[in-house]
Design goal:
The complex is a heterotrimer of chains A (325), B (323) and C (327). Chain A has eleven helices and twelve strands. By secondary structure, chain A is α/β, with parallel strands linked by helices. In chain A, the strands form two sheets. Chain A has an eight-stranded mixed β-sheet, sandwiched between helices. A four-stranded antiparallel β-sheet of chain A has the order 2-1-4-5. In chain A, helix 2 packs across helix 3, helix 2 runs parallel beside helix 4 and helix 3 packs across helix 4. In chain C, helix 4 packs across helix 5 and helix 5 crosses helix 7. Chain C has 327 residues and is an alpha/beta fold. Chain C is built from 13 helices and twelve strands. Helices cover 35% and strands 25% of the residues of chain C. In chain C, strand 7, helix 8 and strand 8 form a beta-alpha-beta unit. The chains are: A alpha/beta (325), B mainly alpha (323), C alpha/beta (327). Chains in contact: A-B, A-C, B-C. Chains A and C meet through helix 4, helix 5, helix 6, helix 8 and helix 9 of A and helix 7, helix 8, helix 9, helix 10 and helix 11 of C.
């Protein structure tokens, strides 16, 4: 497909700092560097997976792209237009989000029908009986049935609520969806249902996903490309097969080796790379390479100089001094 | 084991792809009502409140005397068949006067709750939702209003309203209320300017924590305006708290009115309020104790039922008590 | 037999507004000396309730209505609160999902650790402190002398969980129960903690029950696996048996639904349907609504647990059909 190679979204040097501990006058003196100089792009119809541990800035990246947070610096380009300062209301129809917690992301006082109908109401899309039909159609699209429209979220199980959340996002016929850990709060046997559904919807509606997760095996399954974040930095980005077969960054290597394997004999064979210590505070991250405090190969250079995010082979980017030499 | 082979045939599946909702339908209100019904004290109070309202609204029409009618020759009667609560020194029927007093008290309660539900909820909601400097400013204003004692406030208002040079009832809006008298109006106005503070503070707190919920972010991501988020998502989710606070604010407002009337700052003669009835009866307490007993009892019952019912409502509606 | 824990026909119910919930239905299993057993199941499967029933820390609306719990040769099903307090911490160590809720924020780590040690041992304060330092070293906390005087909030998530493990192990319990010990932690920290659990298993001869929803975790650490679904044990057996020769359709479905790193882009095979609602009296197999091989009997009668090999068995009517063919 020719359309597939068209960039739908590009992020250039995206940065988001959050102020912490305001003083009496409301000015703050330190910043959480949640997202720091992150650049990537997504082609139309593709899925970019974004992985990392809690506090690495993956969720903030997703929400800043949707301008749910205002970026501190950098540019967001959607369908060729710079939307960093644009009026978001018309764009909300094109960019949507699916949340992690299906319990918190649905208003408990609204019926499922109202929840799915709300985006149409906001954007004045379908009216009257047409809207009702559309709601039923959406419910059936996500594997629920029309009787569910009059029920309240608490009557549903986690997986079903996540389906409602997906139907709501689809109600405005978006082109790009940020999936913010959409499966990590679900039971194992339900996760596969939701992932399959997301894949089906992508194929039938031509959607583009930014899939944020900490479960690397699921990310590998659903994504065309995978980006790894650590402490607000994108440290590696490559095709999903490539990143799993030839991880270049020591952190990616450790991350991959810490995934528990549901296969005892392979699990026993596997040599794990156990990282020492914890993730440092994003308020005061280490100088140079942010990973150096936990890196096995840490050198003097890592402390002094921040590694550049460079292309090491075609389509494979990495920010590490070891690789760039 | 004796099991027929029949049973080992495959089960006809009920189309598994379409999913059934698991839990039986039990909305928030049904759930709350279920819990409230279990609470005997609250249910008794609910019935008592209904009776009080009925008595205050219909009661005066059922007895042959009006609250201001003076019946010659029937002064200072003890409770008897014609006058169930007896009569006062001017020959006015006490039952009619107590029922009328209850009307005044309940009207004060209603005014207070309307103010709570409008100004209090909106003010608190806006303050909590927008936060930051706006929140700071709005809450300091609340602190200032809160620091003025209500009694002082009512007295000052009365001075303005009763000023013979400026007849406030000539103003087009207020002329409707002419029959109520300046004192009652000043009590309403005093309640109007001060009685939403508790509500505003509590709603602000709730909104402050609710606005971090993901469904709020979801609404914003859908392009919802601030007002939509506030009135469609945040305030409906504080509704339990709002109802409980309103219920608990009503008896305090009623008590303030009774207390002010008792001090002589309340309704104008010949109108009666429970507080002024009690104050009038105080002089003859040795001979005519029932003149004090009936209005005081009415105040007690109203206070107690509203408070106990409010308490029961809190247990039924408070999400923190939910399982 | 040298079983440290034996549970027989355990039934636990909860009373809620919506009705009675049968959280556990006839649970029977045993844990051997020095054995590590994984209890796997999704939310609502009863895995945590099993643990809470054993240590008698069920919430107020929960009650054990039937069954036997034998710990260390003693029946503790009817043990009083005093006796249980003695057993908890002393003979049974516990690790919970969220270490922050189990540590008191007002006391230092050293304080809490020493208190636990002193409560169950007759030793002097100085000795207890020495022991506390030793324990922190054992669980891999760097510079333990300094860490002793710090408060829980000064510890990171992984460190707190280590401190919890140190506390649970400080009295040399005969049985260690870990309820989702790494669910709240990141993958790299999870790997650290699991590595520590494996080390401890070899170093000290404690029996371990590891409760989790992640089959991958138990593959690595445990000797035996118990799979739970809808308040019943659907299958149990040696790790390799469960992974390479699963008998229950739920276990098979679960194993198929997890994506693996070495697999290509093929479609995942989920288990259709939703987890069961446990309200009301149980009848039939809890998995019947989602089972691809369901038979008419599964809807009516609850399958009995049946052994298929040494220590390996499942509760499924399919196992009975094989026999019937031969009859």
């Amino acid at each position: 497909m020719a359309a597939k190679d068209k960039k739908i979204l590009e992020v250039k040097n995206l940065t988001k700092f959050f102020p912490v501990k305001k003083d009496f006058f409301g000015t703050s003196h330190s910043m959480v560097k949640a997202v720091d100089n992150v650049s990537f792009y997504i082609n139309k119809g593709e899925t970019l997976g974004l992985v990392g541990e809690s506090g690495c800035g993956k969720t903030t990246t997703g929400r800043t792209i949707l301008r749910l947070h205002e970026p501190t610096a950098g540019e967001i380009i959607f369908e060729g237009n710079n939307i960093t300062e644009a009026d978001m209301k018309p764009l909300r129809k094109k960019m949507q989000i699916i949340f992690q917690d299906p319990y918190a992301s649905l208003n408990p006082r609204m019926t499922v029908g109202d929840i799915i109908g709300e985006p149409m109401e906001i954007h004045d899309l379908e009216k009257g009986s047409q809207r009702k039909d559309k709601i039923y159609q959406l419910l059936e699209m996500v594997g629920l049935n029309r009787e569910h429209a009059s029920r309240y979220p608490h009557e549903f199980s986690g997986g079903q609520r996540q389906r409602v959340g997906i139907a709501r996002a689809l109600a405005v016929k978006p082109e790009f969806i940020v999936c913010d850990e959409p499966i990590s709060a679900l039971d194992v046997s339900i996760q596969a249902q939701i992932v399959n559904m997301l894949e089906d919807l992508q194929a039938s509606l031509g959607l583009t996903y930014l899939f944020i997760a900490h479960d690397l095996s699921m990310v590998k399954h659903i994504s065309d490309k995978v980006g790894v974040m650590y402490l607000g930095k994108l440290i590696e980005l490559a095709d999903s097969e490539e990143i799993y077969s030839k991880p270049a960054h020591p952190y990616t290597q450790a991350l991959l080796s810490s995934i528990p394997i549901a296969d005892p004999s392979e699990s026993r064979k596997k040599k794990r790379i156990i990282l020492e210590g914890d993730v440092p505070s994003p308020i005061n991250p280490p100088s140079g390479c942010r990973f150096r405090t936990r890196c096995r190969y840490s050198m003097k250079k890592c402390e002094e100089l921040e590694p550049e995010f460079k292309e090491i082979s075609i389509g494979h980017f990495c920010a590490c001094h070891l690789v760039s030499e | 084991m004796e099991i027929s082979t029949e049973l080992f045939k495959p089960l006809n599946k009920r189309t598994p792809a379409r999913e059934e909702a698991v839990r039986p339908s039990l909305t928030y209100w049904k759930d709350a009502w279920k819990r409230l019904k279990k609470n005997k004290v609250a249910m008794i109070c609910l019935m008592a409140i209904t009776l009080i309202f009925l008595a205050a609204i219909i009661g005066p029409y059922l007895i042959p005397y009006s609250y201001s009618e003076q019946i010659r020759g029937e002064e200072d009667l003890a409770p008897c068949r014609e006058h169930l609560f007896g009569t006062d020194g001017l020959g006015r029927d006490m039952l009619a006067r107590v029922l009328f007093g209850m009307r005044i008290s309940l009207s004060v309660g209603i005014v207070a709750s309307i103010i709570n539900l409008t100004i209090g909820v909106v003010y608190g909601g806006i303050s909590g939702y927008f936060g930051g400097k706006m929140d700071n400013l709005m809450m300091r204003l609340v602190d200032i209003i809160d620091s003025i004692p209500t009694t002082l406030y009512v007295i000052l208002l009365m001075v303005v309203f009763k000023n013979p040079e400026v007849n406030i009832f000539e103003l087009p809006v207020l002329s409707l209320f002419k029959g109520l008298g300046a004192s009652l109006i000043s009590i309403y106005v005093a309640l109007g300017t001060t009685y939403w503070i508790t509500m505003a503070r509590i709603v602000r707190g709730e909104v402050l924590s609710l606005k971090e919920r993901e469904y709020v972010t979801a609404a914003k991501a859908l392009g919802a305006s601030n007002m939509r988020v506030l009135f469609k998502h945040l305030i409906p989710n504080c509704i339990g708290t709002i109802i409980v606070i309103t219920m608990l604010q009503i008896p305090t407002a009623i008590f303030v009115e009774s207390f002010l009337s008792f001090l002589g700052l309340g309704v104008d003669v010949p109108m009666a309020s429970l507080g002024s009835l009690a104050a009038d009866a105080l002089g003859g307490i040795r001979s005519y104790f029932y003149l004090l007993a009936f209005p005081s009892l009415a105040i007690c019952v109203i206070m107690l039922t509203f408070n106990l019912f409010g308490d029961g409502l809190r247990n039924a509606l408070d999400p923190r008590m939910r399982k | 037999m040298n079983n440290i824990l034996e549970v027989k026909n355990l039934k636990t119910i909860f009373h809620t507004y919506a009705g009675q919930i049968s959280a556990l239905n006839n649970i029977s299993f045993s844990i051997g000396q020095g054995e590590a057993v994984g209890i796997v199941g999704e939310s609502g499967s009863g895995k945590s309730v099993t643990m809470l029933s054993i240590i008698k820390l069920l919430s107020e609306n929960g009650r054990i209505i039937e069954g036997q719990i034998t710990f260390n040769g003693k029946d503790i099903r009817n043990a009083g609160e005093k006796e249980m307090q003695n057993i908890r911490g002393n003979d049974i160590g516990m690790i919970f999902q969220d270490p922050m809720t189990s540590l008191n924020p007002l006391f230092t780590i050293g304080n809490q650790l020493m208190e636990a040690i002193l409560k169950h041992n007759r030793i002097s304060k100085a000795q207890a402190k020495q022991k506390a330092i030793e324990m922190l070293k054992l669980v891999g906390i760097p510079s333990p002398e300094k860490r002793l005087s710090q408060y829980p909030h000064e510890f990171s998530g992984g460190m707190r969980q280590r401190a919890m493990i140190a506390m649970a192990l400080s009295c040399e319990p005969k049985l260690l129960i870990a309820d989702e010990p790494t669910t709240a932690l990141d993958v790299t920290i999870q790997a650290q903690i699991m590595e520590l659990m494996k080390e401890l298993k070899n170093k000290i001869n404690t029996s371990i029950i590891l409760i989790t929803h992640d089959l991958g975790l138990v593959a690595d650490v445990c000797d035996r696996i118990i799979v739970m679904y809808g308040g019943t044990i659907v299958e149990q057996g040696k790790v390799d048996e469960i992974f390479y020769n699963p008998q229950h359709p739920y276990t098979m479905g679960l194993l198929k639904s997890i994506p693996r790193l070495n697999m290509g882009k093929e479609r995942l095979k989920p288990i259709d349907g939703q987890p069961p609602d446990l309200i009301g009296a149980p009848y039939g197999c809890p998995f019947v609504a989602r089972c691809p091989k369901a038979m008419q009997i599964c809807d009516i009668k609850k399958p009995e647990y049946k052994e298929v090999g040494k220590g390996h068995g499942a509760a499924c009517w399919l196992l009975y059909t094989k026999n019937r063919g031969g009859e």
